[in-house]
Amino acid sequence: MNQRVRINTTGGPEVMQLIQDEPQRPGPDQVLLRQYAVGLNYIDVYFRTGLYPQALPGGLGLEGAGIVEAVGDNVREFQAGDRVAYAGGPTGAYATYRLIPASVLVRLPDAIDFETAAAVMLKGLTVAYLFHRTYALKPGQTMVFHAAAGGVGLIACQWARALGVKMIGTAGSEKKVAMAREHGCWEVINYNAQNFVSRVRELTDGQGVPVVYDSVGKATFTGSLDCLAPLGLMVSFGNASGAVEDFSLLDLSKRGSLFVTRPRLFDYVASREALNALSGLLFEQLLSGGLEAQVGRRYALSDIQQAHRDLEGRELTGSAILLP
């Protein structure tokens, strides 16, 4: 029997319903996957609230790991019994079994367990494209990364240290500041106690940084621009505090001909070659010890409403996973 979470309408955590049904047979290009761990990510909230639209009724969740149960007629890359993981659409990861396109799956090395994979696939691939594709960081550079103690942030702390990059992180409490430091962040600013723009300027001798990675959105966007050196890049890859408000392009010119991008993981893994390359970078970090998964909390599928309340309330540090 399959358990899965369904939403019939958008809204708060209460719109998520746990239902039971029988696993279906895969279509020609699909795989039936038995999931042993599923990732919980803030992007799931965007789909639940309707900020990111999808057809309803629908599922939630974009990340998981498990064993292939059956494959469709056209699938040649995988077979029953393969250990696999994924991060990306379509939604529907909150389930014991799910049908999923074979094109989004990658083989999971035997040395990486399912919980680790579910905890890092989406967040780790995000850091991989941010650090290696959106802006290719180089050893010795200094950059700013907001929400440094979150699921993506703690991976970024470790990855930046492995690259020899000085990461200036921001966090909202002394506990989170300490956690980011423990995971390799070069300097961490408590934005509730300090003005992060002034502190970044101080740490960079007034020069600013070449790139800012910002998943917070509305609350930090303008300040992030003010942290950049001339010709710097603002990478706005989320909006946990709300959508960024309209701004004038002249604001970029006045601050030194700045660049702004709003990237999505899905565009960076659109081909099999790109997906394998980025997941290879992630697995390399895990297997070399440069990156360690931090599972902050585990939830049963039946606790999904509370899991989303904790997620939205910023009660979580590290990664959270569901155990179907």
TrEMBL record:
One of its GO terms (cellular component) is cytosol. Residues 11-322 form the Enoyl reductase (ER) domain. Keywords: NADP, Oxidoreductase. It catalyses: 2 a quinone + NADPH + H(+) = 2 a 1,4-benzosemiquinone + NADP(+). Pfam families: ADH_N (PF08240), ADH_zinc_N (PF00107). SUPFAM superfamilies: GroES-like, NAD(P)-binding Rossmann-fold domains. Belongs to the zinc-containing alcohol dehydrogenase family. Quinone oxidoreductase subfamily. This is NADPH:quinone reductase. GO terms for molecular function: mRNA 3'-UTR AU-rich region binding; NADPH binding; quinone reductase (NADPH) activity. SMART domains: PKS_ER. Its EC number is 1.6.5.5.
